[in-house]
Amino acid sequence: MRSRSNSGVRLDYYQRIVHRLILAHQEPVTGLFPASNVNSHAWIRDNVYCILAVWGLSMAYKKIADQDEDRAKCYELEQSCVKLMRGLLMAMMNQKDKVEKFKMTQSPYDSLHAKYSSKNGLPVVGDNEWGHLQIDAVSLYLLILAQMTASGLQIVFSLDEVSFIQNLVFYIESAYSIPDYGIWERGDKTNHGEPELNASSIGMAKAALEAMNELDLFGARGGPASVIHVLADEAHKCQAVLQSMLPRESNSKELDSGLLCVIGFPAFAVDDAQLIHNTKDAILSRLQGKYGCKRFLRDGYRTPKEDPSRLYYERWELRMFENIECEWPLFYCYLILFHAFQNDKRSVEEYASRLEKIMVRSEDGILLIPESYAVPQDLVGFEYQKPGSQLREVVGRCPFLWGQSLFILGRLLQEGFLAVGELDPLNRRLGAQKKPDVVVQVVIIAEDNEIRDKLAEHDLHVQTIAEVAPIEVQPARVLSHLYTYLGRNRKLGLSGRKSRDVGILSTSKLYSLKDRIFAFTPQFADLSRFYIASDNELMIDILKGEINFLKSAWDLLGRPLVTLVLKRIHLDQDKIPLAMIQTMRKLKSGYINGTRVMLGSLKDFLNTSAITDLSFLGSTEDGYPDRLHPDVQTYLDEHLLRSFSNRSTMNLRGGQLRPRTLRRRMSCKGAIKKTRSINVDSDNLGMEGPSPLTERRLSSIVPPPWLQANKQSHVSVFATTPEEGPASSPLHLGNELSIRENIYPVDPHQSRSAIDRRSEFVRQQEMPKILIQRHRAETNFADTEVEELIAMLRETENLEEQGDILQYLVDTQGLDFNTAGLGFKNKSDDNANANANHAAAGMLEEGRVVTVRDLLKGLYEKACQQKLWGLVRHTAGMLGKRVEDLAKAVTDLLVRQKQVTVGMPPNNEHTITAPLPEVELRQLIHDAYGDDESTAMLTQELMVYLAMFIRTEPQLFHEMLRLRVGLIIQVMAKELSRTLNCDGEAASEHLLNLSPFEMKNLLYHILSGKEFAVSSVARGNLSIVSCKSSRVSKKSQIGLGDPEGEDALIATIDDRQGQWLRRRRLDGALNRVPRDFYSRVWTVLEKCQGLAIEGRVLQQSLTQEMTPGELKFALEVETALNQIPQPEYRQLVVEALMVLTLVTEHNMVPTLGGIIYVEHLVHKANQLFLEDQRKVQGDATLCCAKIKDGKEQQQAASGMLLCGGAAYICQHLYDSAPSGSYGTMTYMSRAVALVLDCVPKHGEMECAIS
User: Fold this and answer.
1) CB–CB of 82/153 below 8 Å?
2) Where in the numbering of this chain does the Phosphorylase b kinase regulatory subunit alpha/beta C-terminal domain appear (predicted)?
3) Lowest mean pLDDT among 476-480, 756-760, 860-864
């Protein structure tokens, strides 16, 4: 026998250790590891980590196999890995029904179990007796399965197992939006069993999805049927959410050492080197101790203060665990691996020596990793006084196999038995390296020869759909349908992919199917979609955004390929729109918005594009893998015929029948306008108190005397009232009394302000006489009206007028009213004959019945063509349309920790805190706005734009926690009224008539705070343009007397005045706060008994429960601030809080005393400001700082400030810069000094305001 080389001897030593500590515990039947000698449960996560050392050792043996016995050892170790991975696979396959159910419900009770019996692989606790939903565990399993398969192990044996694993991929692909219990099985850290979104789960899922993509589970011996497919967009969504969360772990855990496995081995889920660095530094600075790292702040697990008799914690007791959390040596093992992969030998040695000091020696001299170290009961007091000073003792299992396994891997790397590449055969560790620039390929295809020729006139040469054959061009929905066949398996009862979404990354590849090649147009170009799709400029804008997105997100082989089809429907008055021509020229130039592009034809790009094989569409289960699945065959045959044909639009005007001459011209003018609820005029931005009535409009709410008289009789009225402009709304012609209950009497808590519900009277413009038919049945009369209306509808060319008539018909007759069979609904028989004559007046189209809904659809399509956006939004709302991507858009915002509110503050705001299904969302939005369909539609639209921005420009949303869409709409209208110098009603009219593209543009300017101007374009459409001089420096206006008196003062004198007011208004409406604002408020709260804001008190006890950087704490503060209806006032309150934080941070006083009323500070500052103004004769002497006389007193009492400042604060204070001797911060600081008792009144104090 030859003597062993040194390396061989050393490896044999490790083999003995692995055998003793790890393999000795492996159950012979299932291959699983029990948690300990006394607990036979096998956790998925712990089992996968345990086997890593065995896998690593097997690869080390494979390299030095200089004797047969080494090859045998290598094989033996490999088979242990296979045995364990298959044991877990069998346990999960026993729960295949759960996988199927979870795809639909995503409920924690339908999730795979987190642990199984190590004896037989069966469940050990019930569905609701444990926090089973741990996406990171299933993801870790898939990730290691992929790595092991890539290293040459054969773990999956049959195609049924392949389809089960494909379904596990669907199980984790929505990880970015599914709250789970996370790596510590706790969910929220109070351990009350509430799941939350965890960054560690999302990161692990992202890693698993990327590792599984295009992986052949049969290794080198497989074929197309054993390949796993992942939609790249799902992995990218996980990445985007992960990046937005790090270094935060979840809402209740602001930091977690578990993130080490996401930024380093095994997941390598973060591509941004800076973010990896920041996350690691945050963990080391706040969680590292002498004995390892704490899991997270205020983690009570196994601490001496924990009450072992109950699972959950009381909210107040979390503070007790601060500084005495257990420290886990496990994380030193992670850090060793992290630095080994970074090739940082110094750090590896540093952590190795730290680890050696805290490991425990067994009797036979083996070093063991204990589970954790806790402070002994009797030393807790000392540890509180000086954190990190006391000796700790081992608690929990020893050896802790999860840590032991990682420790052995680290040693194998340190001693050179393994190279880092062997532990990562899929090369995930290279993800954070810089990649070359992506070139986006763009292909434009014409629908037919005519369009091709039109493009040729502009020197743009393209092919038609027919000419690109044999490549077939299909819309994205075809691809999404084909993907539903992926992972179907009858034997296992698995149904394939459920989500219908295919993103731009999936449509930017080519697909091969047998001998055919498919190209798919992107999802945003699908015209069956929403009205936004008929705004060419917006579609171009979205295209530019998507190209930009591809530049940063594309990481597949080959170049991305965007295919666009130019259709008839895109033409504008039979011409190709100018915007499109310009964009195509830009694409031709090779650069667009900083992204490199190539414009060409499909066949040019065949060799450079990514091509995916759709082999899963074969009928493998029936034994014909080479034949298409019969359902797919029929679907494709049907679809290829009609994929790009156009629908004909309905014609509104029935040509055959001419109406009888009208006896009198009635008008429903303004019926649509009445439903609007955006209120800009009032200075506090539509945030009036509970009964927002102004005298001018009272008449429309107090019913006239003749309506109160005989309530039993059927009344039908067409009337005008005095003082009502043409903006009054049609009467509700029902069979009961003609006023709808929800309008009269006015209930302030109804969904919309009473003013806008003036739906009581119909105006006759030509004949303002009041018709009262008291005691006759209303039916005939109503019929004649409806009949005349329909006649008018056919007569008028004006779409706006048609809209008003239809709005009236919907209000009175309902959407399903049949305009052909007038008067037959709910009417008595004796009228039937009379009504039969009127049927001729109905709108008959090709001899069939036409309901009001059909007419509306026709009007909607016409308005889309003619680009009358106000009408489009309104009719879309009446038809109950919803943006297809609404739920997705809201989810995109929520998973990036932005809550969304809809409705107009303060009374009707609804907050959305968790993803909702499409239908519920639409219902919620429409309830929030009552009858105001236009604004409800606008809300849906804005949510989609916000989601676009947060995907492409997340920096716009920094320091914003809630997006209050209602408030944003009001600020948009307010900004328009300021720029166009018009009143509120005109501004909201302009706002609703902006094209979708301009709407997105305006929203962008408001989010980014850029100045903009409005220029008018053809057809009265407005266009938003950026001003060059966006940063006008604001000189202090104080001390400049103003010769022209009050009027000139109130009309803004020049652009600079009003700039700070505008900024405060924008920041207040967007809920923007200074950096680290919430954590600084926490320090203030710690030093006083509470902060009162607008009647809500933030109690000091919040600091007992939550840590400073915790998102839950930020949301509490935010909720209190959102009680303040006026945005600019809210912003001053934020400034006052900032001054308080300065007081605490400079440790001027030991405590701030009792409850601090923040508004008192603001009002005190206002008083001081006015006193100064009187002294220097400043601008405010014209309004608030006037020497008071009787009239003034009276005005102040009625709640009106002369200058229109909100909440009794002078407009000029709102418009002062924060800094400077007359700045708001100066006054706030003086107010703090005066109001708080704790600040010394006399003597010198060091005072520096930064």
Assistant:
1) yes
2) 980-1174
3) 756-760
- Name the β-bridge partners of 1015: 1023
Find residue 1016's DSSP bridge partners. Answer: 1022
From the centroid of its chain, how far is CA 1058? 33
**Which H helix or E strand runs over 394?**
strand 393-395
Pick from 248, 240, 105, 102: nearest CA to 189: 248
Higher model confidence: residue 1034 or residue 873?
873
- Supply angle C-alpha 488, 494, 495, rounded to 5: 60
Q: Torsion-angle region of residue 219: left (phi > 0), alpha (psi -120 to 50) or beta? A: left
Single-letter amino acid code for the residue at 767: M
Query: Long-range contacts of range 662-666, CB-CB < 8 Å, 24 or more positions apart?
Result: 662/788, 662/791, 662/792, 663/788, 664/764, 664/766, 664/767, 665/765, 665/766, 665/792, 666/718, 666/762, 666/764, 666/785, 666/788, 666/789, 666/792
What mean pLDDT comes out for the span 917-924?
87
Kindly state the tokens that stand for 119: 């004896």
Phi, psi dihedral angles at 981 (to 5 degrees): 55, 45
Residue type, 1026: S
DSSP 266-335: TT-----HHHHHHHHHHHHHHHEETTEEESSTT--TT-TTS-TT-SS--GGGGGGGTT---EETHHHHHH
CB atoms within 10 A of CB 790: 24
| pLDDT of residue 987 exceeding 80 | yes
- Predicted confidence at residue 65, as pLDDT, reads 67
DSSP reduced 3-state for 361:
strand
DSSP 818: B
SS3 183: coil
Contact 643, 635 (CB under 8 A): no
Residue 350: CB atoms within 10 Å: 15
Cβ–Cβ under 8 Å, residues 260 and 280 = yes
- DSSP conformation class of 226: G
pLDDT band at 750 (very low <50, low <70, confident <90, very high): very low
In the three-class reduction of DSSP (H, G, I as helix; E, B as strand; rest coil), residue 471 is classed as strand
Return d(Cα 998, Cα 1005) in angstroms, integer: 10
Give dist(CA 790, CA 809) in Å, integer: 9
SS3 track for 598-651: EEECHHHHCCCECEEECHHHEEHHHCEEEEECHHHHHHHHHHHHHCCCCCCCCC
* pLDDT of the residue at 530: 72
The Cα 333–Cα 330 span in angstroms is: 5
Radius of gyration of the chain, Cα coordinates, nearest whole angstrom: 35
Tokens 């990481």 label which residue?
Answer: 555
| DSSP-derived pairing of the beta strands 488-489 and 494-495 | antiparallel
- Whether the Cβ atoms of residue 123 and residue 117 lie closer than 8 Å to each other: yes
Q: What is the pLDDT of residues 376-397, one digit of tens each?
A: 999 999 999 999 999 999 999 9
pLDDT at position 1028: 55
- What confidence tens digit (pLDDT) does each residue in 341-353 have? 999 999 999 999 9
Measured distance CA(483)–CA(477) in Å, rounded: 10
Name every residue whose Cβ is closer than 8 Å to that of residue 901 and which is 6 or more positions away in sequence. 909, 910, 911, 912, 962, 963, 964, 965, 966, 1122
pTM score, two decimals? 0.83
Per the CB < 8 A criterion, the answer to whether 820 and 843 are in contact is: yes
Give 1148's DSSP letter.
-
CA gap 1054, 1080 in Å, rounded:
37
Rounded to an integer, what distance in angstroms lies between the CA atom of residue 367 and that of residue 506? 50
What average pLDDT is seen over the chain? 81
> Quick one: which H or E segment has residue 869?
helix 869-878
Mean of the pLDDT values across residues 450-467? 91
- CB atoms inside a 10 Å sphere around CB 1236: 18
